[in-house]
Design goal:
heterodimer; A: 60s Ribosomal Protein L30, Chain: A; 2 domains; 5-stranded mixed sheet; 7 helices; 19% strand; globular; B: alpha/beta; fumarase; 5-stranded mixed β-barrel; two-stranded antiparallel ribbon; 9 strands
C-alpha cells in the first residue's frame, strides 16, 4: 500500500529536481546543436545557457526564474494500491506544489485570469493541471512534473486532408518564424507536434510530444519517425538561431504524436519546450520506495494502442 | 569573441554612450524591477516613487524573480529572469521622464522605432538578457535585496524589487544612443531567407484572418 505521504514527498522532490537540474538528454542535445552553430551571437547564447545549467546545479537554484506553470502527469498501474484514493493523490500533489513554491523557490506565477489575484503558491482553480494515464499489469505509480513557460511558441490550426504534408510544413514554419523572432519561444527548443484527435486532444498531444519525450526518441511508426527528422531539418534551416539571431540553432529535437481524427480534418498543434526544458519523474513502487529519472516514459505501447482490447505486456 | 564591458551603477552618460551593439555587459550597483503592475500604480494610480529611487538606480529590469520570504524575514532570491519587454512600450516615455532611468533590461528588446523615438532621445539604451533562461547566473549576481515595494499589493512577480548586484549578467547591448537595434539588424538578415522556405509548398485549403487583414474577405 503506497501512503499519501510518500506521494507528497516524491511530488515535492521532482518539483525541485525539475526546476534545478537540466535533463541529461536535453543537455547532450543542446551541445550537439552548439557544435553545428557557426554564428557568433547565437553560439554565445548557447554557451551561456550551458554555464547557466551548471550554475543552477552547483547552487541548487532554479535554472530559470520563470518556473512556468508547474503541472503533473500521472500514470497509475492497474495493480497499484494507494491510500487515500485518487483525490488523495491530487491533494498530495497540490500540497507538494505549494511547499516547493516556497522552498525552491518557484515563482508563484499562477493568478486568476480576470482578477489577477494569487495564492502565492502556484495552486488555484484548475491548477496545477493533472493528466491521468494508466498502465496494465504493473503495481507502480509514475508522477512526472513539467515546468514550462506559457506565453509564446504554441499555435493550433485546423488543416484538411488535402493540405497534406505541405500544410504541416507550412504551419510549422509559420509557428517557428513568428515565435522565433527575438527568441520569444526561447529556442533552441524541443518541438512537439500534435496531429489529429479532437481540437483539444490535438493540443494535448502536441504538448505531451514536446514535454514528455526525450531528445533522440523516435515515434515507433517508421514513416512518422522519418517525418520527425525531416521537419527538424526544416526548422534548423530557417536561418534563425538562439534569440532569433542569425544561425542554425532552432530545434533540438522534434516529436510527433498522432490521434485518430475526424475524417474531414487534420488538426495540427505546434509547441516549443524552451531552453530550460524542465521535467522530472518519480516512480513510486508498491513497497513505497521511490526512483527518480528524467525520462517520463509516458508514451508506452499501451498508451498509443489502436485496438479495442490490449493483449500486449 | 564578443566585447565584454563592466558597468558601475548608476551608469554615467559617457559609459552608456560607449556601449556598442552586441557587446556583453555586466553590472555592479543597484537595479530595480518594474513592470505593468508598478507602471500602472505610479503612472495611472497616483502612487509616488519610492524615496531615493532616482538617486540610487537608473536601471529598470523587466523582471519577476523566483523569490520567497524566509522565516528570518529576509528574502531568498533563487532565479532571476526577464520578461518580454515589448508589452511595456506604452509606459516607457513617461516612465523614463519620471525616474531618469537610462538602462532598460528585459527579454527580447522593444520595437526598433521605440529606440529612435523614446529611448535614444532620453539618453537611454536597452540591454537584453541572454537566451532568456539564465536565471541561475543572474541569481548569483544578486547580492541582496535593498528594499521591496508594494509586495502585498502586487505580489512577488509584480512588486518593485531593489537588488544590490555584482558582476550581474551577462546582458547583450540591443540598442545604442543612435537608436540602432541589434534585434532589428539580425531580423533583417534572417528575413532575407524566409520567402524561399515556402517555395513549392501549396497554400492552405482554408485561410485565417491574419493571412488577410480584411475581415470582409472569405477565407476559402
Amino acid at each position: 500500500m503506497i501512503s499519501n505521504d510518500v506521494i507528497e514527498l516524491a511530488s515535492y522532490e521532482i518539483m525541485k529536481q525539475a526546476a534545478i537540474d537540466i535533463p541529461a538528454d536535453y543537455l547532450d542535445g543542446i551541445k550537439t546543436v552548439a557544435e553545428k552553430e557557426s554564428e557568433q551571437l547565437s553560439g554565445f547564447v548557447i554557451k551561456t545557457m550551458v554555464k547557466n545549467y551548471e550554475a543552477a546545479t552547483e547552487d541548487r537554484r532554479p535554472m530559470c526564474a520563470d518556473t512556468g506553470l508547474p503541472r503533473y502527469y500521472v500514470k497509475v498501474g492497474d495493480k497499484a494500491q494507494f491510500q487515500g484514493g485518487f483525490t488523495g493523490i491530487e491533494r498530495a500533489m497540490r500540497s507538494a506544489t505549494a511547499r516547493a513554491t516556497h522552498d525552491v523557490p518557484l515563482r508563484p506565477n499562477r493568478v486568476h485570469p480576470l482578477w489577477r489575484t494569487e495564492h502565492n503558491n502556484n495552486v488555484g482553480i484548475n491548477s496545477p493541471e493533472v493528466e491521468w494515464s494508466f498502465e496494465p499489469h504493473v503495481d507502480w505509480i509514475d508522477i512526472t512534473t513539467v515546468h514550462k513557460g506559457g506565453l509564446f511558441g504554441t499555435d493550433y490550426r485546423m488543416l484538411f486532408p488535402g493540405d497534406g504534408i505541405d500544410g504541416i510544413k507550412r504551419f510549422l514554419l509559420d509557428t517557428l518564424i513568428s515565435f522565433g523572432k527575438r527568441g520569444l519561444c526561447c529556442q533552441p527548443a524541443i518541438v512537439g507536434i500534435g496531429l489529429g484527435g479532437s481540437k483539444d486532444t490535438c493540443m494535448q498531444l502536441g504538448k505531451q510530444a514536446a514535454c514528455l519525450r526525450v531528445v533522440g526518441d523516435r515515434n515507433p511508426d517508421a514513416k512518422i519517425a522519418e517525418l520527425e527528422l525531416e521537419l527538424m531539418d526544416i526548422g534548423n534551416s530557417i536561418g534563425m538561431g538562439a534569440m532569433g539571431f542569425v544561425g542554425s540553432s532552432m530545434v533540438v529535437d522534434l516529436h510527433i504524436e498522432v490521434g485518430h481524427t475526424h475524417t474531414g480534418g487534420m488538426p495540427i498543434s505546434v509547441h516549443t519546450f524552451c531552453l530550460s526544458s524542465r521535467r522530472a519523474t518519480a516512480r513510486i513502487n508498491a513497497d513505497g520506495s521511490v526512483e527518480f529519472r528524467t525520462d517520463p516514459k509516458w508514451f508506452t505501447p499501451y498508451h498509443r494502442r489502436e485496438t479495442i482490447s490490449w493483449e500486449g505486456k | 569573441m564578443l566585447e565584454q564591458v563592466s558597468l558601475d551603477l548608476p551608469a554615467t552618460h559617457e559609459a552608456i554612450a560607449s556601449l556598442k551593439l552586441g557587446s556583453v555587459v555586466y553590472l555592479n550597483g543597484i537595479v530595480y524591477t518594474a513592470r505593468e503592475g508598478v507602471y500602472d500604480r505610479i503612472l495611472n494610480g497616483g502612487s509616488q516613487l519610492p524615496e531615493g529611487l532616482i538617486a540610487s538606480s537608473n536601471v529598470n529590469f523587466h523582471c519577476s524573480p523566483a523569490a520567497a520570504l524566509q522565516d528570518d524575514g529576509k528574502y531568498h532570491i533563487g532565479g532571476v529572469t526577464a520578461t518580454a519587454s515589448f508589452r511595456f512600450s506604452k509606459y516607457l516615455a513617461k516612465w523614463l521622464d519620471l525616474t531618469n532611468t537610462k538602462i532598460i533590461i528585459g527579454k527580447g528588446g522593444m520595437p526598433a522605432a521605440d529606440y529612435k523615438s523614446i529611448l535614444a532621445p532620453r539618453g537611454a539604451v536597452y540591454l537584453t538578457t541572454v537566451g532568456y533562461g539564465t536565471g541561475a547566473l543572474l541569481g548569483r549576481g544578486v547580492q541582496g535585496v535593498e528594499a521591496v515595494h508594494w509586495l502585498d499589493e502586487l505580489g512577488i512577480a509584480q512588486a518593485m524589487w531593489m537588488f544590490r548586484v555584482k558582476d550581474f549578467g551577462p546582458f547583450l547591448v540591443d540598442s545604442d544612443l543612435q537608436g540602432n537595434s541589434l534585434f532589428a539588424q539580425q531580423g533583417e538578415l534572417v528575413n532575407k531567407n524566409i520567402e524561399s522556405l515556402y517555395n513549392g509548398l501549396k497554400a492552405p485549403a482554408l485561410h485565417r484572418y491574419g493571412e488577410t487583414r480584411d475581415r470582409k474577405d472569405e477565407l476559402m
